[in-house]
Amino acid sequence: MEHLLKYCENDHQRNIIEACIKYETKAEAAKHVGIAERNVFKHLKAVRARAAIAGECPERDLNYPLPYGQQIKGTSTLVDKRTGETRLQWIKTTVEEEARELAIRMAIDALKEDLPRYEPVVKDAATVADLATVYTLTDCHVGMRAWNQETQSGDWDLDIAEQVLTDTFGALVECAPNAGTAVVAQLGDWLHQDNINPLTPTSGHVLDADGRYSKVVSVAVRILRRVIGMALSKHDQVIVLMAEGNHDLSSSIWLREMFKAVYENEPRVSVIDTPLPYYIYQHGQVMLAWHHGHLRKNDQLPILFAAQFPEIWGSTKKRFAHTGHRHHVEEKEHSGMTVVQHPTLAARDAYAARGGWIAERKATAITYHREHGEVGRVTVTPEMVRK
């Protein structure tokens, strides 16, 4: 089991593995570390999965550590029938997302047990149960760095992102009506990069990044905690969406799982936790739907949501889909559904500036009545809150 030590993600996991090596039973190891026995099994499973993907699983006769960035796709072993000894073994490697996602999910399951849970937040004022306000934050690219002299769109870094995003949401909450329900729709590309390396997860394009990834994660989580807290202070129920974007394919997974665990003691918070990147919520006669926009174009969304969610489509009279991804405003009424494409609050990066893409930066809070559909809209721009 000693080989697992180099696959631990932090000192906490390392202490657990060392305890498993030292003590005969998992119960003794758990008592030594001071955690529940089930958490020992979860951490052990996560570390073993990471080791196996990297090519080390002695209990399965696999002892070939792989180069960084590669993962096990499969093995073929030639065994001598007479002696049972391994004669030859072929190791097939890959960098496919499925293996990476499996390891991430296992790590999340192990680590979220140790997250602190937040106690219920007291709401300030009375609300109108028939109303639901959707607060949309999309393509915020926390961790991106932009230089105004190069982009002519304003500076953007971690400090600016934290101030603008927090203050913008605060202004939206202050100006929006006292709806009974709020949807905090983080619509994808919340993080500019998906791992330690500042590269896009699918194409590997180099990104303009600000700061170490651990710092980026810390700021991104802190903003979201404040945003959800603001929503809880005004609304009875808060629906939280952490949508998948093309910049944060993996990060969206741990964001959903983390916030679901953190707010499990807060009965007024519900996290939409489906891994399918098409999300819905029914508010009376109104169907609310979301998709980042990286997999389907806007005009394809009505028929897609109708096909995937026929019961909700059939039981509602007014339907609205919200998308992002393209960083500019577009709104069109299709047969049976209005598709709203939201802009970004973030400044454009060098890639967008060189490509000549220009769009107004803003965020909106749209309020829906359970029978009448959209009844109000609040808009805030970075200039209104920028210090």
Polypeptide structure, described:
The protein has 387 residues and is an alpha/beta fold. The chain folds into two domains: 112 residues, no CATH class; 268 residues, Purple Acid Phosphatase, chain A, domain 2 (4-Layer Sandwich), CATH 3.60.21. The chain is built from twelve helices and 15 strands. Strands 8-7-6-5-14-15 form a six-stranded mixed beta sheet. A five-stranded mixed beta sheet has the order 9-10-11-13-12, covered by helices on one side. A two-stranded antiparallel ribbon has the order 1-2. A hairpin with a 6-residue loop joins β3 and β4. The longest helix is centred in the middle third of the chain and has 20 residues. The chain is globular. It starts with 10 loop residues before the first helix and ends with a helix.
Quantity of strands, as a count: 15
Low-confidence blocks of residues: none
State the CATH class of the largest domain. Answer: Alpha Beta
- SSE topology string: HHHEEEEHEHHEHEHEEEHHEEEHEEH
- Fourth CATH level, the homologous superfamily of the largest domain: Metallo-dependent phosphatases
Mean pLDDT: 87
**CA gyration radius, whole angstroms:** 24 Å
The CATH topology assignment of the largest domain is Purple Acid Phosphatase, chain A, domain 2
Q: How many DSSP helices? A: 12
Form type: globular
Tag the structure with descriptive keywords.
Purple Acid Phosphatase, chain A, domain 2, 24% strand, globular, 2 domains, 6-stranded mixed β-sheet, alpha/beta, 5-stranded mixed β-sheet, single chain, 387 residues
